[in-house]
Amino acid sequence: MAEEKNNAQGRGNAQAKNGAQQDMNQLLQIRRDKLSQLVEDGRNPFEITKYDVTHHTTDVKEQYEELEGKEVSVAGRLMSKRVMGKASFCHIQDLKGTIQVYVARDDLGEDAYKEFKKYDIGDIVGVQGFVFTTKTGEKSIHAKAMTLMTKSLQILPEKFHGLTNTDIRYRQRYVDLIMNPEVKETFIKRSQIIKEIRNFLDGRGFIEVETPMLVSNAGGAAARPFETHYNALDEDVKLRISLELYLKRLIVGGLERVYEIGRVFRNEGVDTRHNPEFTLMELYQAFTDYEGMMELTESMYRYVAEKVCGSAVLSYNGTVIDMSKPFERITMIDAVKKYAGVDFNEVKSDEEAKALAKEHHVEFEDRHKKGDIISLFFEEFCEDKMIQPTFVMDHPIEISPLTKKKPDNPELVERFELFIYGREMANAYSELNDPIDQRERFAAQEELFAAGDEEANHTDEDFLNALEIGMPPTGGIGYGIDRLVMLLTDSQAIRDVLLFPTMKPIDK
């Protein structure tokens, strides 16, 4: 009996689904029929090439005292329509917001009013009319003329429920931007963030440059590259994983302060903080060190937050992040000592470090040395404790192949990472400019690659030649732009700040 009931319920669900699909197909066909009729009548909306817009919707409302009674023209997407006999109301949405439009048959004309009643939600229209306030106090436009410029042949999500399915939101970002105004605001703010970064750096005498994306040697970071083939040269090439080595060449060439904002590509998985292609900014400044990079970073973060968010104190995921105060500083070894209770200053050998890792259940590989173990301890016990802006300094040399050694301790290097809310936001060095030392570091990386480390760097002979020409003392840093945007827009996942994030194919 129960089985028969379940079967009946299943058939009912299938019939309801098929019925809903048939209804949708019918609605879609009605839209196409409307377009066909317009074309047949010689009024194809897609033949309109421009429309003279005088104001955005929000401008009309914000400048109401100045514009009341005056004629304006706005254009955008029809988001609602309420037909009431001889007069109707609708709402038009554009880049900045929405505004109500009052549409009366006697003002528009009988034929034009009939056409308006055939408009569908999602159509793109132009409205010409005068600014006024309705009896209910809503600032509106009294339409004198309406122009259909684009016929929408698809159906937008129902307004009350909106577009909430995250998979569809990311795959059809164009619909997400229409239905969720806060999403549009995030990406407008992203543009403002990058603009203010440029303003800050330009004010400090930096110049913006562009370097190759297709490279024969993808160096400058520990990551697996994407590989492709250059047919014209019959050469295997890679998509860059970093901007570093080319920008340093420019420092050698005498461009003392350079930066680049661009996409880099790393052949890795997808999660809330990682996307295979993402936006990185790297900058290099001659005649300074990682201390100079700390000052620049702290100043830039504070400047951008104040310009874009209005304050250097902001809320992220319910936690107050205070960038108005000096950023905290701690060495990686001191952080491990504080949060894991292990003092690696007292550890003298790789074997001793591995024994401590086993004791604390920290996974490692046979090839790892003491410095690698320190880094693994930091990741395991410390990273998520770095909530307020914190510079974690003085990394082990094993994990820093492009960085100057500390003069008083050659096992460590002059490097820092900036952490906020437990996330790495930036990575900086006093750049290694000794070509002999750099060649030795590359050789060590080649050994790691041979031992199975697919993220190890390879020797870059042209870069070594540039160092032999001579690079001045230099400070350099890389910033994850997407993570900064996440912070300043209170976005929880990197996909929320990428217009078109990487998605798994639908059929997989």
Describe it:
With about 500 residues, the protein is α+β, with helices and mostly antiparallel strands. The protein is built from 16 helices and 20 strands. It has an eight-stranded mixed β-sheet with strand order 6-10-11-20-19-18-15-14, sandwiched between helices. Strand 1 and strand 2 form a beta hairpin. Helix 9 packs parallel to helix 15 and helix 12 packs parallel to helix 13. It is elongated, with a radius of gyration of 30 Å. The mean pLDDT is about 95.
Topology:
Layout: H1 2-40, H2 57-62, H3 64-67, E1 71-84, E2 87-93, E3 98-104, H4 105-108, H5 110-117, E4 124-133, E5 139-150, H6 166-171, H7 173-179, H8 181-203, E6 207-208, E7 214-215, E8 227-230, E9 235-239, H9 244-252, E10 257-265, E11 277-286, H10 290-309, E12 313-316, E13 319-322, E14 328-331, H11 332-340, H12 350-359, H13 370-381, E15 390-393, E16 405-406, E17 409-413, E18 415-420, E19 423-430, H14 435-450, H15 461-469, E20 474-480, H16 481-489
Parallel strand pairs: 3-5, 6-10, 14-15
Antiparallel strand pairs: 1-2, 1-4, 2-3, 4-5, 7-9, 8-9, 10-11, 11-20, 12-13, 15-18, 16-17, 18-19, 19-20
Helix pairs in contact: 7-8, 8-10, 8-16, 9-15, 11-13, 12-13
Mean pLDDT: 93
| Helical stretch tally | 16
Q: What is the helix fraction of residues, given as a range?
A: 25-40%
Tally of DSSP β-strands: 20
Largest beta sheet: strand ordering: 6-10-11-20-19-18-15-14
What oligomeric state do these chains adopt? Answer: single chain
Gyration radius from CA atoms, angstroms: 30 Å
CA-to-CA gap between the ends?
37 Å
Query: Proportion of β residues?
Result: 15-25%
Which structural class do you get from the secondary structure elements? alpha+beta
Largest sheet: 8 strands, mixed
Low-pLDDT ranges: none
* CA-based shape: elongated
